[in-house]
Amino acid sequence: QVQLVESGGGSVQAGGSLRLSCAASGSIVRITTMGWYRQAPGKQRELVATIRRSGTTNYADSVKGRFTISRDNAKNTVELQMNSLKSEDTAVYYCNAGVTRYDLGYGDYWGQGTQVTVSS
């Protein structure tokens, strides 16, 4: 059993900043790729950013240059620093992790989501 818990969501004005955090816990041997996804009302879930164990990152074009993803492999945490927020960034943000577990092999896990609202 693996759990992902997000924190840091909230409401900010356009141009402001927020930092999202996600902590993974449970029967974890190794976490491969961790990432953040978001889903706005009436839209499909979309990738925001991912990061591999090596530190290699990938960003959606819409957030490139504004958001920064980072992780701590020892703590099994991932963060998303969001700067210069725009109203179109408003969405529920979900943490994702690919996990190798002690007894059940590989599994893909999602957090419960945290709301980010940017007012203009």
What do these coordinates show?
The chain has 120 residues and is an all-beta fold. Helix content is 0%, strand content 62%. It contains no helices and eleven strands. It has strands at 2-7, 10-13, 18-26, 28-39, 46-51, 57-59, 67-72, 77-82, 91-101, 105-110, 114-119. Strands 2, 4, 5, 6, 9, 10 and 11 form a seven-stranded mixed beta sheet that branches. Strands 1-3-8-7 form a four-stranded antiparallel beta sheet, with no helix packed on it. It is elongated. The protein starts with a strand and ends with a strand. The model has no long low-confidence stretch (mean pLDDT 96).
Main sheet: strands, sense, barrel:
7 strands, mixed
Distance N to C terminus: 40 Å
Strand content: over 45%
Q: Any low-confidence stretches, pLDDT <50, length ≥5?
A: none
